[in-house]
Amino acid sequence: MSKRRHRPRGRLAVAAIALVATVVAFGGMAGSAPGQQLTTINVDTLAIANGLPLTLGINKGFFAAQGLEIKPKIFASGNDIVLAMANGDGDIGYMGYTPAMIGRTQGVAPLSVLAASETEGATEADNWQNVVVDGSSSIRTPRDLVGKTIALNALKGVTELVVRGSLDKLGIDSNSVKFATMPFPTMPAALANGQVDAIHTPEPFMSQVLARGGRIVLAPGPVITPFLPNGCYCARSDWMAKNPDLVKKFRAAINQSLTYANSHPDEVRALLPAAIRNIRLPNWSPLLDRSKLLLLARLAKKYDIIKTLPNMTTFAPRFVEEGTFLNATVGQSGFLTLRLDGKIVTRLPAGKVTIAVADKSSKDNFHLKGAGVDRSTSVAKKQQATWTITLKKGVYRFASDGSSKKKGSFKVA
To answer: ω before 265 within 30° of 0 (cis)?
Structure first.
């Protein structure tokens, strides 16, 4: 490895650290009415932007409305949260599905999913968690990673799984790369100082590297499959059995927070330090695509992260809402598409879907209309939007209200 030294941009490093303070600071702000008695739930979480719907929901009073006070505690990785919860430190944990599977299948902690949280993106362009390198690096493509060292926040977790899975899918032996472990906040400096060749990191740390001239060389999640499930909220099965009312209330509040965060991205960004407000935001959704969760579990078993597949019915109970993820794209040349796993949508079953819209045009937009649905992005500006909606039997039409007048439709059975 080269030992080039680059000075990290101070304001971005400070801003990234300030994200930790943001998560903690809002922990006690339940927005309760005077005299209202709240039940405290201790939530173990991570200092990454993906966890901000929890903070936003606390700030908006969604948890207080359910009679809950949330007290967060920050950990370095999902694996650390699993161990903490195994020792009774925390009632609910925000973590990747993979650490949760480890805890359940290896007897560390009998965790079950309470609620979904976010997925990875559909493409490199909209993914918030990628493998990035320094601007002066000779690494240009995924194949250039052979023989190089990639920083992960933990081994035997979601980051190792997606990096290995994506490399192997691209025909690159995942055993040909080396891994080093460190917390996400320390990764940009380690990359700049030449301690590692590449880092697999989420926002806001990814944008910190890109802002100083770094570049993305691999988007692991989208390579494996669009909208690969990533984060979730889990609790011990015994805690859930003893506290069914708290489970129901927490799930209602976090699902409301996830949906609200997608509809109000400016409010999410307002929680971030000013220097990192333009980072990529995840696709938050209360929905879980169970077929993709099973794919994730099978990859975890393939890479010996888990020895056996979890019982998916007890790991992700049926009260976790199920749905499909679609991506819509509006291009500067006027093209308009709606896709499911890369294929043009012509027919869908009735039910809930989450649609991630990449509106890349300042002259056109994406406007979806049908039974109970009338949602659109802005004609005048480029934007990302995520909608969680319920499709009913009938025909749904989408079009641009701008200059191109492009349109399309699909049937719901």
So the answer is: no
Q: What is the pLDDT of residues 217-233, one digit of tens each?
A: 999 999 999 999 999 99
Q: List the CATH code of the domain at 324-412.
A: 2.60.40.420
pLDDT at 1: 44
Cα distance between residue 261 and residue 265, in whole Å: 6
User: What are the domain boundaries of the chain?
Assistant: 10-120+229-315, 124-224, 324-412
Backbone angles phi, psi at 176, to 5 degrees: -85, -5
Both structure tokens of 186: 């320390």
* % of the chain exceeding 70 in pLDDT: 91
What's at 331, amino acid-wise?
G
pLDDT of residue 76: 85
Q: How far is CA 271 from CA 2, 25, 33, 78, 403, in A?
A: 37, 11, 23, 22, 35
- Phi, psi at residue 219, to the nearest 5°? -110, 85
What radius of gyration do the chain's Cα atoms show? 21
Query: How is domain 124-224 classified at the CATH fold level?
Result: D-Maltodextrin-Binding Protein; domain 2 (3.40.190)
**In the predicted model, what is the mean pLDDT of residues 58-67?**
97
CATH superfamily of 10-120+229-315: Periplasmic binding protein-like II (3.40.190.10)
Residues 6 or more apart in contact with residue 62 via CB below 8 angstroms: 253, 256, 257, 260
Give me the phi and psi of 260, to 5 degrees please.
Answer: -65, -40
Helix/strand/coil for 199: strand
